[in-house]
Amino acid sequence: MRVAVVGAGWAGLAAAVRATQAGHDVTVFETAGMPGGRARSDDDSDAATDNGQHILLGGYARTLALMREVGVDVERALLRVPLSVTYADGGGFALSRSGPRLLAAAGALAGARGFGIVDKLSAVAMSLAWRLRGFRCPPSMTVDELLRHAPTARVHRRLIEPLCVAALNTPSAEASAEVFLAVMRDSLFGARDASDLLLPQRPLAQLLPLPALAWLRARGADVRLRTRVDALERVEHRWRVGSDDLFDEAILATPAPEAARLTQTLAPAWSATAAALAHEPIVTIALTAPKRPWPAAMLALHSDDTSAPAQFAFKLGEQPADVDRVTLVVSAAGRWLQRGSDAVAAAAVLQYRQAFAIRDDEAVDVASVRADKRATFRCTAGVVRPAMAILPGLRAAADHVAGPYPATLESAVMAGETAAAALGG
Ligand SMILES: Cc1cc2nc3c(=O)[nH]c(=O)nc-3n(C[C@H](O)[C@H](O)[C@H](O)COP(=O)(O)OP(=O)(O)OC[C@H]3O[C@@H](n4cnc5c(N)ncnc54)[C@H](O)[C@@H]3O)c2cc1C
Q1: Which residue lies with its CA nearest to atom 38 of ligand 1?
Q2: Of residues 335 and 271, more confidently modeled
Q3: How far away, in angstroms, is 222 Cα from ligand 1 center?
Q4: At what angle do helices 117-132 and 177-186 cross, to 10 degrees?
Q5: Nearest to residue 196, comparing CAs of 355, 81, 299, 25?
């Protein structure tokens, strides 16, 4: 079949690779000059800047398999470390890779630094209760409601909130407990290495987008960069995509607002569901700071709702001899961005200074501030996500499509692969 894929983010690339492998004649349309969508780099060099810090998990089985398929040396491209929520002062918890998962999680909680015995017991009781309930809860329940009777305020603030915001990009007061529990089940309490953090050692473009582009072109797929699809039209049983090309089937791998626009007259109900999704920003701040000891490559920061916006700090890649090159991440940043991105950056820098005891006469220089206003959809309790099937021969494949997980690279790849597998069905 002639298949059109609209969008060359991780979902579109996954769909295109799997459709090509299945023997289809694939054309990819991409507005930007670089593939990768929200997980892209500015250019194809080793020094390229990414559109925000990304981390992968050991449980991203489909993404890791796809990366290998297109020739990426996953072990070199990603630094694998056991899951930890470590603070600059060494507090927090680290998960051991050995032993049954529930015991490892209980052991990590019991050994967590900076927590009292009551905190630890409450955290262990909470995870046992999740397990006993099969990691299930009503779809309308928020993470805060899930935790109402369980852990202490410190466990909530210092362990659950950072995990929730990192995974769902939504504050725990509104975040879907159902999706949060699915993430916990399959990462923290899943297969032995599923909870490992995989920290990129290369620009994002080299993790999948550019190798997938080369793989597709080498196999005859037509990848058209700088080519925006303005409209979709049904022509008998086929699809006109863009100017005058006709395709047997099409996969819409664009963000939800664009998928809603393209389907507005073709499938009004589907389009309305996609258009109704709210989005949540992420702010990424790159800075240089005086050298300090770092207990781990990724650190949690004490964050709050009033003056401390950043949840995590990263020190990755080759470092200069004289300064630390650091990235600060503010997830669920909607509540902060009302003050403007410069104010968010200033507050995050102050937070960093306090965490690492940096004196006033020592310089912290901000290199860049990126505010991605539509980083992910808001994964709130009861959120209704659009289905993959739109019309015969037309499917959506992206991180917002209905599924068990929040908006992640793995959700995007899963959606792309599932849409490709359904071609002709
Ligand atoms: C700052 C930031 C940090 C993140 N951190 C993480 C993380 O740590 N871990 C994680 O797993 N996920 C993270 N995410 C989420 C992850 O990046 C997304 O879930 C994933 O990239 C979505 O992929 P996608 O293919 O579904 O959509 P997109 O990446 O949005 O791809 C859609 C593509 O469609 C193209 N397009 C749109 N309209 C058209 C059109 N009309 N014609 C042609 N092309 C079009 C766009 O240009 C884009 O390339 C983060 C996101 C951001 C923004």
Answers
A1: 254
A2: 271
A3: 21
A4: 90
A5: 81
CA–CA dist 362, 364 (Å, integer): 7
In CATH, the architecture of 2-76+202-277+381-421 is 3-Layer(bba) Sandwich (3.50)
Q: What would the mean pLDDT of 349-363 be, rounded to a whole number?
A: 96
Distance 36 CA to ligand 1 centre (A): 7
Judged by DSSP in three states, 280 sits in: strand
Question: Ligand 1 centroid to 83 CA: how many Å?
Answer: 24
Could you tell me which of 109, 108, 86 has the C-alpha nearest to residue 97?
108
What tens digit of pLDDT does each residue of 221-252 get?
A: 999 999 999 999 999 999 999 877 899 999 99
CA–CA–CA angle 111, 114, 120 (5° rounding): 50
Please state the domain extents for the chain. 2-76+202-277+381-421, 83-195, 279-377
Question: Could you tell me the two tokens for 4?
Answer: 């059109």
Please state the atom number of ligand 1 nearest to the C-alpha of residue 52.
1
CA-to-CA separations, 422 to 15, 214, 388, 393, 413, in angstroms, rounded = 10, 24, 10, 9, 14
pLDDT value at 91 more than 90: no
Cα(198)–Cα(195) distance, integer angstroms: 9
Q: Three-class SS of residue 163?
A: helix
